[in-house]
Amino acid sequence: MQELIIEATKSSPQIHFDPAGHVLEMSGESYPENAAKFYAPVFDWLGRYLAGLGEEQVTVNLAISYFNSSSSKALMNLFDMFDEACRTGRRITVNWRYDPDNETAQECGEEFKEDVCDLPFNLVACGPGQP
User: What angle do CA 85, 86, 87 make, to 5 degrees?
Assistant: First the structure.
């Protein structure tokens, strides 16, 4: 399976999914005009990736500093997809990275964490510009 790489724009995050290393990363801001259209290839790729996943440990690193309501829905759908995969035995961990000065990003991470049952979800405070 090939990597999924989507370059960041002013209104959409950078996405780099590495199936060989089992690391999925998204960073930046997410407020595309049509979030459903923007995230459709991401969900398609993830569906195929998760279907072929075995016992490998998958790390999902998210550093989304700002997102609109339609992107929030897309992120929740993403977490639901990972949560369901964990229920069926997949090993996935999400790291929600946020700047401690950005209370909104922290609170959103806390809310997402509350909405998942089986998905390990870490809140990781990190300074601006840190990986």
Answer: 90
Q: Name the DSSP class of 12.
A: S
pTM of the model: 0.92
User: Residue 131 falls within a domain, yes or no?
Assistant: no
CA dihedral sign, ordered 99, 61, 111, 77: positive
- Least Cα distance to 122 among 94, 92, 83 occurs for 94
- Domain membership of residue 37 (yes or no) is yes
The number of distinct structural domains making up the chain is: 1
Q: pLDDT tens, 60-104?
A: 999 999 999 999 999 999 999 999 999 999 999 999 999 999 999
Domain presence at residue 130: no
Q: At a CB cut-off of 8 Å and minimum separation 6, what does 98 contact?
A: 63, 65, 105, 106, 109, 123, 124, 125, 126
Per-residue pLDDT at 88: 94
Q: Domain range spanning residue 20?
A: 4-125
Sole residue written with tokens 């049509």: 34
